[in-house]
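Thread: quick sanity check before group meeting

JM: Hey all, I'm pulling together slides for Thursday and realized we never actually wrote out the predicted structure for the chain we discussed last week. Dropping the sequence here so it's in one place. If anyone has concerns about the input, flag it before I start.
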Amino acid sequence: MIKKILLATMIAGSFGAGVAVTAPAMAAVVVVREAPPSPRNEVAPPARRGYAWQNGHWEWRNNHYVWTKGMWVKERRGYRYNQPTWAERDGKWVMTRGAWARGNADNDGDGVRNRDDNRPNNPNRN
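JM (edit): ok, ran it. Output follows.
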């Protein structure tokens, strides 16, 4: 048991002074002390049926920021896509990765939630 704790401590210490990552949220949240660079100007291509556009964004890899180009992500019915974002919290920068969230989606933008909309993909009817 002590060996496992010691190994976990050594692995956590190897992340360095610039990053802190919590184990349960390792895949979803990254915390960095340096502010990310300004986002690059990237033009999103025209809409593509069955896909959502993920904006290009800065990611923290190997103790520095790396630009990740925008890309198409396969759509999930009944879900909405939350873009990757950086936010400052208590002097540290926190990145929340892009993810699908179940919720009050409105595919056609008519102000009526899909679950209450008889025609969720037609903005002229509900």
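AS: nice. The longest strand covers residues 57-61. Residues 2-116 form one domain.
JM: adding both to the slides.
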